[in-house]
Design a protein that fits this description.
Blueprint: H1 2-24, E1 27-30, E2 34-37, E3 50-54, E4 60-68, E5 71-78, E6 83-87, E7 92-96
Antiparallel strand pairs: 1-7, 2-3, 4-5, 5-6
Length: 98
């Protein structure tokens, strides 16, 4: 029984790592001013502070991705090290999927 639990845990770990790697293979482009939020919008927080605004052409690195009702959100990191969430279609476009 213990071996079965270890096997299931290992399989879930592999799936989780694969999910992260797939998210990080995504590429987005900032095409218009885009709000950068502190919390994942797909969790529908009651209040979601805006950390800043991304400028058109600004380069960002995608670190995670999530889905909400009728939208896709990306956790990004800017060159200055600021991390937050953007919503596809609100100033950002998906350029490449993994």
């Amino acid at each position: 029984m213990a071996a079965f639990v270890v096997l299931i845990a290992a399989a879930l770990g592999v799936l989780w790592v694969g999910d992260i790697l797939m998210d990080r293979s995504m590429s987005i482009a900032v095409v218009a001013e885009a709000p950068l939020y502190s919390l994942p919008p797909q969790d529908y927080p009651a209040v979601n502070a805006q950390l800043g605004t991304l400028k058109p052409g600004e380069s960002v690195k995608v670190t995670r991705m999530g889905y909400g009702k009728d939208f896709q959100a990306f956790r990004v990191e800017t060159h200055s090290g600021l991390e937050g969430w953007v919503i596809s279609g609100k100033g950002v476009e998906i350029r490449r999927r993994g």
